[in-house]
Design a protein that fits this description.
The complex is a heterodimer.
Chain A: H1 2-12, H2 21-30, H3 34-56, H4 59-76, H5 87-101, H6 124-142, H7 146-157, H8 162-169, H9 173-191
Helix pairs in contact in A: 2-3, 3-4, 3-5, 3-7, 4-5, 5-8, 6-9, 7-8, 7-9, 8-9
Chain B: H1 3-13, H2 22-34, H3 36-52, H4 61-73, H5 78-123
The chains are: A mainly alpha, B mainly alpha.
């Protein structure tokens, strides 16, 4: 009883009993420690932008979402409960929810702008073919339902286990795998129309 | 293995048959060897996979700077939580003190009653 009360009070003031690792960094950031927060940003910002970009389809919106995610970590980091999973899972849940809540932009910029460009030293024809394929893939991605894009984004750039990714989306592992299969099938059909397979 | 089964495995396990269930790999390889259209579909899936796995560019320095600058404008809400926790602690302490004092007074009154009874007993004349 006393231990439970102590834990509750410690969590109310943002302290972490374990006192090490990411949970400690979050607790320190929650008390206003800018260095701890900077470290957390260094650890998680790139992947957060990557996942948001895959879901939203453009870099500018992805950076807006990533900024909001990091600010929530700064102001509401005390809500992160390390006993319920890794910080990455908590951050991706916020990221995906913000992305899904966002209205799709009509002037969506091709996503390739925010990904590594093709190797300039490669054969020009191969580079051109790869660029064309990349553009077709990005167009096909924007045609997928948002939750399928989110499932695909988490599987590609989230560095999560299947169970963690399912948890981020709030679905069972089976439902998450089903979203992945549906998204891959939709991409395949968009890039190789069914009529081409006799 | 039929074409539909092949495509279902392709969507579930990806373009590399080595990642497919062991008992389906040989049948998949045989079908691929015999069917140029499926080879084209599989090769496209492979290239799509490579495109999708292209790592995103790192977050821009401007974004990092915006985020870190915003921390000065929006401090974490821990002082509020600290005040709430302090208030809760103070309330709990007051309750405990009040309960202790109340219980002490009950015990004091009980002792006084007993003492009064003893004194009254002593004051009674002996038979």
């Amino acid at each position: 009883m006393m231990r439970a009360l102590t834990m509750t009070l410690l969590r109310l003031v943002g302290r972490d009993e374990a006192g090490d690792g990411e949970a400690a960094l979050v607790a320190r950031a929650g008390r206003g420690d800018c260095r701890a927060f900077e470290r957390l940003v260094a650890l998680h910002l790139d992947r957060t932008v990557g996942v948001a970009q895959r879901v939203l389809g453009n870099r500018a919106d992805a950076e807006d979402v990533a900024q909001e995610v990091m600010m929530r970590l700064w102001t509401h980091g005390h809500r992160f409960d390390p006993s319920r999973g890794r910080l990455a899972t908590w951050l991706y849940r916020i990221t995906v929810n913000l992305c899904l809540d966002r209205r799709p932009r009509l002037d969506t910029v091709p996503m390739a702008e925010g990904f590594d460009p093709p190797d300039a030293r490669a054969d020009p024809e191969a580079v051109l073919l790869e660029s064309e394929l990349r553009a077709r893939v990005e167009r096909a991605m924007t045609g997928l339902p948002a939750r399928q894009r989110a499932a695909l984004a988490l599987s590609l750039h989230g560095d999560l286990t299947t169970a963690e990714a399912a948890d981020v989306l709030g679905v069972t592992v089976g439902a998450y795998e089903s979203l992945l299969v549906q998204s891959r099938a939709a991409l395949r059909l968009a890039l190789v129309p069914a009529g081409d397979v006799p | 293995m039929t074409r539909d089964e092949f495509l279902a495995h392709l969507d579930r396990h990806g373009p590399d048959p080595e990642c497919w269930p062991r008992e389906r790999r040989d049948a998949a390889r045989r079908l691929l060897a015999a069917d140029p259209m499926l080879r084209m579909v599989r090769d496209t899936a492979w290239r799509v996979d490579a495109v999708l796995r292209t790592p995103p560019l790192p977050a821009s320095a401007a974004l990092r700077a915006r985020i870190l600058a915003a921390t000065t404008a929006r401090p974490p809400d821990w002082p509020v939580r600290f005040a709430i926790a302090s208030g809760l602690l103070a309330s709990a302490a007051s309750l405990l003190v009040g309960f202790y004092i109340g219980a002490s007074e009950v015990r004091l009154a009980d002792a006084e009653n007993r003492l009064g009874a003893i004194v009254a007993g002593l004051e009674e004349p002996l038979p």
